[in-house]
Amino acid sequence: MIWKPVIIRGSEPLALALLKALADDIACGSLPAGARLPTQREVADDLKIALGTVTRAFNEAEKRGLIYGDGRRGTFVGETPGGRRLLSAMSSAAIAGVDLSRNHPAHAYDPDLRSVLRQIARTPEIGRLLQYPPGAGFSHHREAGARWLKTMGFEVDPQRVFLCSGAQHALTMAFAAETHSGDAVAAEEYTYPGAKAACEMLGLELVGIPMDDDGIIPDALESHCRHGRIRLLYCNPTLHNPTTRTSSTARRKELIAIAEKHDFVIVEDEILSPLLDRPVGYLAAMAPERCYYIVSTSKAVAAGLRLGFIVAPQKSRQRLVDSLQTSNLGGPPLMAEVFTRWLDNGVIERTISKRRREIAALHQITRETLKEFDLHSHRSSYNAWLVLPDNWTSADFASEAQRRGVLVTPSEIFAVDKRSPNNAVRLSIGSISDRRQLQHGLEVLRDILAGITPKESVKV
What we know:
Layout (H helix, E strand, L loop, with lengths): L13 H15 L11 H8 L3 H13 L3 E3 L5 E3 L5 H6 L9 E2 L13 H9 L17 H13 L9 E4 L2 H12 L5 E5 L4 H10 L2 E5 L1 E2 L2 E2 L1 H10 L4 E4 L13 H14 L2 E5 L13 H4 L4 E6 L11 E4 L5 H12 L4 H12 L2 H23 L4 E4 L5 E5 L6 H10 L2 E2 L1 E2 L13 E5 L6 H16 L10
Parallel strand pairs: 3-15, 5-6, 5-9, 9-10, 10-11
Antiparallel strand pairs: 1-2, 4-12, 7-8, 11-12, 13-14, 14-17, 16-17
């Protein structure tokens, strides 16, 4: 049969528009299961668009089960019903030209998993990794965690180190150990969306505290404490997500003093601190009986290595173990074994060194390309924070960037209070492994800010 898709140009990336047209035609029955599609070249010629645009759309459609290739016979409609319903669940990020919305490390620098799995498979005691671990994790994995923290300037007894399934799991368990439904949790006015989700799940009231260039403003936190009880402060004082700010030692001491005065605990999220060239003064090192410390491997080593470490106050350890056992009966033994072996043979150190060098290069490109605008960045962060001119809201800017094939994250996603300024976007540059692709995406953003209208709505 002859398929002639109708796509609406200008409202979104062309590859996404083509994918939606394909899904619509499958959903309505005009493309029945088993129907043979035109070749990608024929579609490109018919629509007068680039072949690469059609390839991106077809590849994504095949991933989602909408179509399948059968060698030289061609490409056919799959048996999956309801193509548009399936499409509605997918992210346009999958086929966007440049995706600066995903805060994860570039997969090009992931360590070799196959070799370490072969080593583990030859271990006589491998069966132990399939058993339930102790609530805090196996002792040699906790010791490995403590050794890793020492490389970041945080020396801690392994008995204080608890394993979990990543930083998201860690902060949720710390919240569960220290709060009850209805309690108030304070955080930076822009905070990690996962913390917002954890508070919602646990029935906690999240309170946003204003920030300056040094992090949380102490007077603002003190004011909130005077007018209502704060049970816990969640903060990300090093390479803050999304603003990239890092709090000074003096500012951290001020936060600890307020916590001691008003008797609340601090959950310190140090997810990006492994990427720093030099260690900082951690809250949990300054006040070990007042603070939780959280770090994970997902940003520094590999996104899929779902392993986190929590250092907890002595008085809170049993509550934390109870939370961990309730949620997943302890940390992930196989993930922890992979990490431990990588730590022992130097893979962790080499991987982090590679990521540091590449991130620094990406930030240099970012700062140079957007030097005329209000950009906040740090050479060790995966992110940059672009404050927009007064004529843009973050949502409108993100929408226009997406229309031109670049995905960014608007500040509303991070805002705790709707009254916070919505005039910035986060650029997650660390996930990009192709510097030319990053350069192109940044140039698109620069053109938008400069008021330059492209000749075509989307470059393909």
